[in-house]
Design brief:
Helix content is 0%, strand content 53%. With 127 residues, it is mainly β. Strands 2, 4, 5, 6, 9, 10 and 11 form a 7-stranded mixed beta sheet that branches. It has a 4-stranded antiparallel beta sheet with strand order 1-3-8-7, with no helix packed on it.
Length: 127
Amino acid sequence: QVQLVESGGGLVQAGGSLRLSCAASGLTFSAYYMGWFRQTPGKEREFVATINWSGSSIRYADSVKGRFSISRDNAKNTVYLQTNSLKPEDTAVYYCAADKRPYYSGPLYSANSFGSWGQGTQVTVSS
């Protein structure tokens, strides 16, 4: 059974930074596309960033491009999201997700493509 556990969220002032981590188990981590999505109350889950199994293909939402950075450590079964220059509109629950298919060539942007999800970590940015 796939398990994804996010950590690193919290309360930060605008302009600050947080590093989110997602530890994966129950899958051959190095074979799967991973992604970060976020959601606020009343809205659909929103694409933030995705990274392919080797780390050679990365995509960002326009809203976070230049401020956020996704990376992965396949030896530690962990994917990261470094968030810099945070804005109040970045406030959301951030979710880690794993693709349904191993070695998919991608790119991936849609939450529907991901079959496993973590419980989420709250990021709150104060103005």
